[in-house]
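Aim 2, interim progress. The first record below pairs a target sequence with its structure tokens.
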Amino acid sequence: MMKRYKTILATLMMIALLAVAFALTARRCYTLEKEACFNTLTNYTTELADKIHQDFSRDLEHLRFISRVLGQFGLDDFRNAKRVLSSFEEETLISRLEILYPDGRVMTNQGSFVSAGGDLSFDQLQALGEHISGRSRDLMDPERLVLREYVPVVSGGETVALLCGVVDLDRLPQLYRVQAFEGRTQSYIIDSSTGDFLMDTWHDELTNVSVMTTRPPKAGYSFEQMAYDIGHMVSGSTVFRSRTADEYFYCYYEPVGTQQWMVLLSVPQSVAFARLHSFMAAVYFLAAVMVLVLVLYFMWMLINLFKESHEKASQLMQVRYMYEVEKILFNAYLNPADIHRALWKIAQVMTAQYTFLLIRNDGLTDRYFSWGSAGGELSLEDLDAAAFQILPCLREEGRLLTYHPRSSFESSPDLIGLVDRLGLRNLAIVPVIGSNDEITGLLGAFNMKQRWNNTSLLECVTLSFAMMIHNMQTFQSIKNMGMIDGLTGLLNRNSYLAGLSTIEPSQFRSLACVYMDVNGLHELNNHLGHAAGDRMLCTLAEELKIAFGNKNTYRIGGDEFVAICKNMSKDEVFRKTKELKEAVLEQGYYASIGIEWRDRDCNINAIVKVAEARMQEDKRCYYQKDVHNRRVREMNHQLEQMILEKQDADAFLSVIASSFKGVYFVNLDTDEVRHIYIPEYFEKMLDETGQKFSQALLMYARTSVYPDFVPRFAELCSYDFLEKQLESSAVPEIIYRKMNGVWLRLQVFKFKKYHPGSRETLWVFEETEPPESIT
């Protein structure tokens, strides 16, 4: 074995030495040929710049002579002007002559007049004196690009017209052909003041020098340096890659000396280095033969050396890896940080930049975990959207492994956008199957450095994750039953007693207790049933959470609620309690409340007892006052009205339920929702998102609606965008198709209470026919 290793090492050293020798030879040859290329370009560029300068200077001198003739004869007699223009014979660059009069008329060389319109301004051009214009459209043929050489026509000491020599830019490539490199050189004239090309022998149309920003420069060169040189009329060189020819072009540019023009010559690398390529082809062929022989010999030994050991190492690694992941996840339901450790372990083994676990419950994402080598976590919205799109493929194939995500997801624009946003280069995902053969999670990794032929390294640990998910869900269910009130979602009495036992008075500047008892629950249950009483308790619980949050608010009995306020000022406690009582009254209910606030002697049990006693006193006063009797009568009347309204609403809903799939009142300021008719599945989504309508609607779109319609739902959930549509008196709507094939129409209306302080809207979901374009 040692002898084989020495042979391999010697072979590697020989290959390395040969590679270095050939590389140094190629580099030296390339340097010499590049210097020769730039020397040739420099000489021809200088010659071309001189020729262009001489030609335009001669043209201007010719125009000066004609303008003096026109000034002597005068321009009042148009026949004289026509005779002068028509006698012009085309020389060098100028194709024809024109005269621009102060009134905006232009006399052509045929003696006819055309209007310059808004294209030419006599006053502006006169102020410039003798000059050559930038690239512009020909008045006679707007499809043609020209230059205009202007010389004032002076008569009696005043400029009476402007003589214009029109230069047809289509003629320039014919006049300025360069014979360097056997005539395979491209020539350009650039107006550095605008960046416009005045001549381009490579492309069919004239563009702007800015297009070169799309052509990647070769190392050591930059478009910024070229742009600086051209802008400051400095000669220089550059090398860029042409996408059309798919090769590098070597360029040299030089000021013309006329206007702010630069002349640029370029030559393809295949032409400039033709001799070098022939020589290097022979050198490379020799090198390739030698290296190939050595590499084949090396590979033969290498394959024989590692084939046996690799299989054994892979098997051992997989067993060790499975055991370590299982060990890490054993108590992960108690310590979720262990899940991140397990994902880190998977990332190590699979050489992945990111790994993630989505835990699903009832078809929705329940929890998610991710690990990334750059730190931080992935977005739940991104992961959830990806899971929803990929899930059908997983159900069909059982796994997903792709090293070309864009082509794999070309049928889903949302997934392509996600691929670009996360920078996905490759992706592997496997489902985590629960005890009932349902998908309880998705385990994935992406941007793996090593290329894998299958997803076995993910699949072999899914059983450990399935057991962990089962344990986590069971543990959470038991914990919630013991610590959370099932009706209101507040912490229950067990949580209350446990929380009190952990409060140390010395830890807080102040402590307060707000003790609340609901009045009229018994009467409400008797008149409208326990469902109405439950709604009242839930309403009071929500108002309590709004006032004091849900971290230290409890339902400790049938109609008793407690809020513990830590480090809260006395004024703030009483203010929030007042707002709570007013909010409860606005809902048509009444609650007796007792408050005790202390910033010394902060024994929590004593504080609660005082608050409870004050609540009882408030309750006693409420029932003793005559106002209570009036409120009882009012409540009875309200209850009777509510019973009638409920019966009317039930009758109405029984009629429209077959057509209307949801009717909601949504406050755009708070994202809160009230419903007239709500399907059970959407009610679960509202609970899942904390009663936030926009979040629940996006969840509904991602899980129940065809992906093509999901972006439209995202627009409506941007309430500022929605408000602009409502303010324009339009009725925003979406006609969309659900996954089950049913077509629905969603319309949003202003509600009668809609105003800047409370933007109440009505959202109606109704069955409809498919659009005509679909049918």
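The second target in this work package is listed in the same format:
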Amino acid sequence: MKKFFKSSYFAIVMAFIYVPVIIMIIFSFNDGDTTMVWNGFSAKWYSDFFQDSTFLKSIITSLFVAVISTVLSLLIGVSAAIGLGRTKKITQRKWFGVANIPLINADVVTAVSLMVVFLISGIQFGIFTLIMAHVSFNVPYVLITVMPRLRKIDPALLEAGRDLGAKPSQVLFKIILPILKPAIITAAAIAFAMSFDDFIISYFTGGDQTNVSTFIYTLKKMKPVVFAFGTILVGVIVITIVGWNAFSITKEQKLQKIEQLKKGIYKTKQLSKLQKEQAHLQMLINNNLVLTKTKKLNLWIKYFILKMHISIVSSWNYDKKITRLEWKRNKLKSEISREQRYYSRLKSATKKAQKLNKQLAQTTDVKRAAKLTIQIDKLNEKIEILKEEIEWIESRDQAQLEKAQEIALKIQKLKDDLKNEDKPSKKIIAWYHKKIKYLEEWKIEIEEGKNKYKLRMILEHLKEISERKYESIRLLTERMHVLKKLVFLESAVAAKIDEQILAETNAEQLEHLKAKKTQLLNDYNLFLTKKLSKVDLKIVGVMSKIQKEKTKLAPDYDEDVKHTKGFFARTWKIGLVSILGIASFTGLTVAYVMNNIYDLVVANWGDYIDRSLITDFEKRYDVKVNYQEFDSNETLYNKLYTFDYDVMVPSDYMVQKLVSENRLLKLSDKEWAEQINLENYFSPQDHITKETISQTLIDVMKKSPIEVQGQKQNITDYAVPYFWGEVIMLVNPTESNKKFLADRGIEYNPATGQITNPEQLSWHIFWEAVEADKRLVLNFDAKNLFMMAEEVRNQKANVESVEDVDANYKLLEKLLYKSNVSLNSDEIINKVGTGNFDFSMIYNGDALAGNKIYNGEDSEAETEQVSEDGKTHFIFGSPAKQHGPGKVEGSNIWSDNMVVSKTSKNKFLAIQFMNFIIEKYQDISASQGPTAPGTSAIDALIGPEGAYEKYKDLYIPSKNGEAFKYNRTLDDYLMDKFNELITGKIN
């Protein structure tokens, strides 16, 4: 196993990185609405993506912000890097550390800090604040990318430029920026990617601007259209990388071609081959010879084996060994030259110190004298260091000389001892010779110097490697030359004909053979001549191409003539890139501006409408709508600090909160009530009405009065329903779960799945189910969870005291901290749809959507209960257990409502939008799932051939429930306890 991981480590890492991308690409072609089950191949999501104007607007916003913030970040970051480069190192480190704080700071902290700064400054949240926020976190990335490259710039280059008369601007643009170019390009790529991809900071500082990350985050359900966008994005990145690499390779090949043209070796191999073929053909023509191939199989086998051997030897890669030796050679050369430079540097430093001392003696300016004194002290310190280095080198050389003399004496002694040996054996003589040779090599190494000796040995090794390869190829080539003569036989064309002529006795036949011989000779000569002509043409073509490339890429210049490129030749590339860049940015700016000139701003829950309806509304009234999305009521409320909306769709309790803060337009006032196309909601209308609201919903909404300026009012005075529904209990109809319900006396209708005796059903069954090891999937909402506990304890949906919240907290602790309980947001639909649960607390609309996924044509879930209509119905119901007189468990009946801001600049258009939604109740509900509030829409959806005909009992909320009420103190405390509750919970 260890060996497997060791050999497959890189493949495992690559799989970990790229498998999710591959899965995303595959599911972008999924025919179904879910991202959990494959429903067949389809490209419809790509079509939907290009038709989704809101999605495209968010991408345009992301691109616009990313481009501008990248340019500004580069200007600030590169300027800051160059400025820091001119300061002392200690100053650089301090400021560099300060600049990097945003990199290690949490994004959410940065986002909230920026939001507070903009609020205090009184700046209108929008594109300006979004760009400034992006610049704030991009500048550090530019700094950390550019600074390392800047530190590598040799100060001698800058001094040389100044010595040659360059102005500071010329030093910047001709030396510094060209050297920093690769780092600047890298920094631009990082800044652009970070800006385009940012979510958290954009979410808090964007105001009315929605970039692509924010748009995707606020979607209620993750659909394959997001995968289609991701696939397109991956494709763009791949094309960009491949294109850039192709450009780099082409550029590198061009430089190699220029170098080959200058050296005169361009296409020499091809030309040499053609010239050899030309010479061979000419020889055959001159000598009237013909090539014939041998029929001996053994010779052909030897020929192909030898040819393969030559190919292998020619391809033997000595590069790694040669590169290592060359690196050692360069390192040794560098060490040797560094030691040699000590003398020249000492001489230069001494001369400069004398010059500065002379200037110090002549100056009368105190500041000038102090500056010169500091420079002289630094030079004296440098001179001392150089003297110490030189002293060490000289002492080392002296020690080596003494060591070499000592070794020489040892060698002489060994030679004398060998002479004095009386009839030494061969073994003794060999020992003496080996010892003497070792000491002689050591003596040479010490005399030359260790580094110089190593350098000489490396050069000899390099030469040996090159000669070895050359000699191997030469010997094999000679063998090939001999073998070719045996395989490809050269013989006279007329040889065989001559043999036939000599063997022929018939005079008439003899003359015929002589005539035929001449014809064959002429035909063969003509064939060879044509072949030779073709080779000549190829040679001319190659030489012409060489000359053409040389004229184009490496022309010969007269050294006495000054050659300069014209202005156009020098600037056309920069000009073309500039024109393309300006044109692209202009187009992007126009697209952004066109998409941000709007008449109405709407804030709605993510994926709460078919966005084609927004386009229909725009076309009908010839207006532009800025359609914003949010993921929670609290998010919407926080966004109101940074931006004003015209129409919003908050939930019932948030409507109450906004009304209590006097933020909403009172729609029941006659001025507005007469314009809203509802008959039974505000007051009877004189004009033709199109819709009535469900009386059940109206009754629930009116049970939550609001105190406004000392008067009690209902949210029905300020809000028009958008969707409504109920929090229900959903059970997967497995045999085990059905038995679990039956043991508790709970019955249901197999045809619809609806529990028929809700008076036996209590939310406490969840606590029992978790102890029985059932999988619980709960809606991730603070109010719903505390509602469930409050219903168990006090049979109420709303808590009424801090003590209630604390008691519910303790009860929920026992449930939520179990490993078989998970909290889910919108992904609960997919979990239910795949049957990956036993019990669930869920909105009825989400339960319906999950039930439809579960019954999909390609569903892989094994159905255990199929009704007469051929559908598998989950068991569902709303608790109605009686705990005493007037104490009956219930649930939350919620509603999301359209409201108009009191500060709206286009209230009449806002009312028109509300009327448009009322008109489209049926379409919106059919596409999104939650219950429509209009009675005619409900009737159409659950009637014959309606979208929810088979699930009508699940579609219509029960009457046994109440709406959440707003309580400022308790709501804040409840949210704090909820956050504390989920801190230790791992889904």
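Residues 857-869 have pLDDT under 50 and may be disordered. This observation will shape the mutagenesis plan for the next reporting period.
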